[in-house]
Design goal:
Blueprint lengths: L5 E4 L3 E6 L12 E7 L1 H11 L4 E4 L1 E3 L2 H13 L1 E2 L4 E3 L5 E7 L5 E6 L23 E5 H5 L2 H12 L6 E5 L9 H14 L2 E2 L5 H6 L4 H10 L3 E5 L5 E5 L2 E5 L12 H14 L4 H15 L12 H8 L6
Parallel strand pairs: 1-4, 1-10, 2-8, 4-6, 5-7, 10-11, 11-12, 12-13
Antiparallel strand pairs: 2-3, 8-9, 13-14, 14-15
């Protein structure tokens, strides 16, 4: 078995979403799905589609939703040999609805599902021998104590020179900001790249603004990428920072765009691109990701990304 160079881990979910906007989840209505989902599964699937060897550690139920996720990983080339299929648990599910003001509301079934069973026994040192990159998120540190310990253990098994990226992905449905700060501290200290969204740098550092929080991390030696959605991204390194513009596309579904962006940034750095080039590549990945319904459905191939960057259009 070829060992993966990029590894991620965490909650495997399918997503079931409202077809129409402004339909609250406490009322009857129409849904679409299931779609393969989960922040780190979206990330690792995008890495694989962009051409890098990718592996994922997590758990599924022995059910149709689990097969939905396994089929997607198999199609796109994500290794799941360190993952588990648990006959006594169902696959995790997220229900989501969108509102006209751009907000979303989620209901998660994950802590007591297979998704919440990740623990350090899943993390085998041999699996990390060829690893060049590990991607972790705050959401997966917060779901259970055993998942947090599994993520911490994975960092200890990385070979010399391997890099760690961290997306805070704070979910108010999971834990308070104060609790997440404490959980995230060991990963932030080890991380080479931090990828916050709006308000996360401010919340996790206690700074007065996201920009100040990002500069604190950059001063500590991190590459910090502030994800700004349709405005692109802002990259901080040392005492410098710069903006990288995004691409105009028609948004269909924003879920997963930030995770796809993070995958694009990882692949670009592994390819040896400069930080401005990596930001541009990642912006293209994130832009294409929003053009189809479903968290992974718009995830592009490398050629689709290059075509968009060259101005040859979407798709």
């Amino acid at each position: 078995m070829k060992l993966p160079e990029v590894i991620s881990m965490g909650t495997l979910l399918v997503e079931v979403m409202r077809i129409n906007r402004d339909e609250p989840l406490d009322q009857s209505g129409t849904f679409a799905g299931p779609f393969p989902s989960g922040d780190t599964p979206i990330y690792i699937d995008a890495v694989a589609r962009l051409g890098r060897s990718a592996g994922f550690i997590g758990a599924l139920g022995q059910d149709d939703f689990g097969r939905c996720l396994l089929n997607r990983f198999a199609r796109d080339g994500v290794d799941f040999s360190c993952g588990k299929i648990l006959p006594d648990h169902t696959t995790g599910v997220a229900f989501v609805t969108y509102f006209s003001d751009g907000s979303r509301k989620f209901i998660y079934h994950w802590r007591h599902a297979a998704a919440g069973q990740l623990n350090p026994t899943y993390v085998q040192p041999e699996y990390f021998k060829e690893a060049k990159w590990l991607h972790l998120t705050g959401c997966n540190l917060a779901i259970t104590a055993s998942a947090r310990d599994a993520c911490y253990q994975a960092m200890r098994y990385l070979p010399p020179g391997a890099r760690v990226s961290f997306d805070p992905n704070i979910r108010p449905e999971v834990l308070t900001v104060e609790e997440v700060r404490e959980l995230c501290r060991p990963v932030i200290e080890r991380a080479d790249v931090i990828l916050p969204s709006k308000t996360e740098a401010m919340m996790l550092t206690g700074a007065a603004s996201d920009e100040e929080g990002c500069r604190r991390w950059a001063a500590a030696g991190k590459v910090v990428v502030l994800k700004q959605g349709e405005q692109g991204c802002r990259i901080f390194q040392g005492d410098a920072d710069f903006e990288v513009s995004s691409f105009p596309v028609t948004e269909v579904d924003p879920t997963g765009a930030g995770d796809a962006f993070s995958a694009g940034f990882t692949v670009a750095l592994l390819d040896g691109l400069s930080l401005p080039e990596a930001g541009r590549f990642a912006n293209a990945v994130g832009a294409l990701a929003v053009t189809k319904l479903g968290p992974m459905e718009g995830t592009p191939t490398r050629q689709e990304v290059l075509d968009l960057i060259k101005g040859e259009g979407v798709g």
